[in-house]
């Protein structure tokens, strides 16, 4: 396993920039609740990933859904599998949608970089970390490492792309996104201290006429049980 590292580019001076950018990113999905669900509603690989997590953790496990969006499909699926789900999202509109769709879950408005809850058996971050600059993704992975118990799992999905905080049009809305090629994504996850368990790569075409086909990466990772010497 790679040595666990904090991104050296994260200095205190970056915090105001990140906070300001995240505030504007939170508004993006406030406008996109319905359109996102229509364009990206059918993601069989994400369902398979949720099934994998539920089977590996078992009923009663406590799971964090980072950037839970509308709560559908993943928070809904994990609750149906008997897991205790906590969902966080920076978009107030997404939080309202998820709370209505998955009332059994605890859903609240929170930026992953400000998360203080710990003790999770697992976490998922499906297509949410891509809205951070790469420096913020490294920071978020460190937060999630602390939030997940030793031996717990982290599942991340991203669109495969070599980008750092680049402005793009997403469903006709301006947004800034980051991405990695598959090997680089594994490297970033390992640098945060996780071991890679699996990487699944799937082609995906959103259900809107003007959207280009995408390559989706699903990284399955695990926080080691003990310190590196005892692994
Ligand atoms: C592309 S949507 C994916 C939603 C859901 N995970 C799914 O798979 O359908 C990304 C979500 O992540 C949220 N998000 C983006 N940056 C975030 C952050 N720093 N902390 C928490 N949520 C964030 C957005 O508001 C949005 O709801």
From TrEMBL:
<protein>
    <recommendedName>
        <fullName>Methyltransferase domain-containing protein</fullName>
    </recommendedName>
</protein>
<dbReference type="Pfam" id="PF13489">
    <property type="entry name" value="Methyltransf_23"/>
</dbReference>
<dbReference type="InterPro" id="IPR029063">
    <property type="entry name" value="SAM-dependent_MTases_sf"/>
</dbReference>
């Amino acid at each position: 396993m790679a040595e666990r590292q904090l991104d050296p580019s994260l200095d205190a001076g970056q915090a105001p920039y990140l906070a300001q950018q995240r505030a504007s990113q939170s508004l993006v999905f406030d406008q996109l609740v319905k359109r996102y669900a229509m364009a990206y509603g059918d993601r069989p690989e994400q369902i398979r990933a949720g099934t994998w997590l539920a089977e590996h953790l078992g009923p009663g496990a406590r799971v964090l859904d980072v950037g839970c969006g509308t709560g559908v499909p993943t928070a809904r699926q994990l609750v149906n599998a008997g897991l205790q789900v906590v969902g966080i999202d920076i978009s107030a509109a997404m939080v309202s949608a998820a709370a209505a769709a998955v009332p059994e879950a605890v859903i609240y408005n929170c930026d992953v970089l400000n998360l203080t809850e710990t003790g999770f058996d697992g976490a998922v971050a499906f297509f949410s970390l891509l809205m951070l600059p790469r420096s913020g993704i490294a920071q978020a992975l460190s937060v999630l490492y602390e939030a997940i118990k030793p031996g717990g799992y982290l599942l991340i999905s991203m669109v495969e792309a070599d980008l750092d905080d680049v402005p793009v049009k997403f469903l006709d809305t301006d947004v800034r996104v980051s991405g990695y090629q598959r090997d680089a994504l594994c490297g970033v996850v390992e640098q945060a201290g996780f071991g890679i368990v699996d990487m699944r790569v799937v082609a995906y075409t959103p259900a809107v006429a003007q959207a280009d086909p995408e390559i989706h990466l699903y990284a399955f990772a695990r926080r080691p049980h003990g310190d590196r010497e005892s692994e």
